[in-house]
Amino acid sequence: MLLGMSYGMIQLFKWLANDLMKQIAENHQRIEGIIIKLIDNSKQERADNKLYFEKVVTMLDSTYTMMAKLYKENGK
To answer: What is the DSSP letter of 20?
Structure first.
């Protein structure tokens, strides 16, 4: 009986060491890939937002300059 239980424990440990650890490693790789993609997307969004903000500032500056010129011309 002791030999049978020992054999069962050995098989259980082999299963844990092989199959279960492989599944854990695969899940870890998938999660790592997802995190990397999320970080890349976040960096891309920040860069896009920065470009958009620069465009808005440029348009506002142009509008302000144009309105100042019109005000000066009408004020004369």
So the answer is: I
Helix or strand holding residue 52 (H, E): helix 21-75
Q: What angle do CA 58, 62, 67 make, to 5 degrees?
A: 150
CA distance 18 to 13: 8
CA distances from 16 to 11, 26, 31 (A): 9, 15, 21
What are the tens digits of pLDDT across the range 5-49?
A: 999 999 988 888 888 889 999 999 999 999 999 999 999 999 999
DSSP 76: -
Q: Please tell me whether the overall predicted TM-score, pTM, comes out greater than 0.90 for this model.
A: no
Which residue bears the tokens 């440029």?
58
Closest CA to 9 of 24, 25, 17: 17
